[in-house]
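RECORD TYPE: inverse folding
INPUT: structure tokens
STRUCTURE:
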């Protein structure tokens, strides 16, 4: 995880080019027709290696994706998923949870061939935290229906199921317009990086050697086309539990370091925290996201 540079140069944690895998080096990012009760378009099951860039987005310093929940409908406001450490106001501290904070951030929406087809505009940060997970979820000023009418792009669906070891996955970076292919190697009971601790993190096999700017990329199940995690970090130098060098801690407290191996945060926990209309409700039964 390398911290985004923009607006954070005075921070003592700044370490070169930007991200927990990283926000990318500071540079320019590639530049209500609602139908009530219509389900937001979902991707059909995808054959192996059919995952493309459609629905991914580029932020100023990170990657992300236009996403729907399993119960989202076409008239719901669109959501963009990225990392907590990609938040434009700075990385949330341990224990800090941000909800419903106004935002005017913009995102460049890509089609399947990584062409830039639209600019999406946020109205607020619905949720952002680096406690237990590493996610930021933005709400847009446009519905899924209107985005599809404008761009032809439908959202990626966040799976409500826990990812499975051995699953063939793709990490799709809208910032770099690059895809990484690997498998789910296993899961870290706790993943510690500097002051932050993440729970039940996805560990990649060595094929996903992610870099700065890939932070927030959707981790897509290559067989279903659904989002199962959000890319967030890699152990760069073999150090233990330091910034850019996460370590694994098991239930007995034993620490393991995997140099050159990347990690992602599971997203199946997100749908349980939203009610109809893509409305965040952290009090819902089954919602385990950290609360403010």
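DESIGNED SEQUENCE:
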């Amino acid at each position: 995880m390398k911290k985004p540079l923009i607006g954070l140069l005075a921070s003592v944690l700044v370490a070169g080019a930007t991200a927990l895998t990283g926000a990318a080096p500071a540079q320019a990012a590639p530049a209500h027709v609602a139908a009530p009760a219509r389900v937001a378009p979902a991707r059909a099951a995808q054959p192996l290696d059919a995952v493309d860039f459609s629905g991914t987005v580029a932020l100023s310093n990170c990657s992300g994706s236009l996403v729907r929940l399993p119960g989202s409908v076409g008239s719901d406001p669109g959501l963009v998923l990225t990392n907590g450490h990609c938040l434009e106001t700075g990385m949330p501290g341990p224990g800090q949870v941000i909800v419903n904070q106004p935002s005017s951030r913009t995102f460049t929406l890509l089609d399947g061939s990584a062409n830039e087809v639209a600019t999406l505009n946020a109205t607020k940060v619905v949720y952002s935290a680096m406690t237990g997970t590493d996610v930021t979820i933005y709400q847009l000023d446009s519905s899924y229906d209107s985005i599809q009418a404008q761009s032809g792009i439908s959202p990626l669906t966040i799976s409500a199921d826990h990812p499975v070891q051995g699953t063939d996955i793709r990490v799709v970076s809208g910032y770099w317009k690059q895809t990484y292919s690997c498998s789910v190697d296993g899961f870290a009971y706790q993943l510690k990086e500097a002051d932050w601790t993440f729970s039940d993190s996805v560990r990649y096999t060595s094929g996903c050697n992610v870099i700065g700017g890939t932070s927030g990329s959707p981790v897509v199940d290559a067989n279903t086309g659904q989002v199962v995690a959000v890319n967030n970090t890699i152990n760069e130098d073999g150090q233990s539990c330091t910034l850019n060098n996460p370590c694994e801690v098991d239930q007995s407290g034993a620490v393991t370091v995997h140099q050159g191996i990347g990690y992602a945060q599971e997203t199946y926990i997100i749908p349980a925290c939203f009610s109809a209309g893509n409305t965040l409700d952290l009090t819902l039964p089954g919602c385990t996201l950290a609360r403010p």
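NOTES: Residues 5-19, 26-41, 44-48 have pLDDT under 50 and may be disordered.
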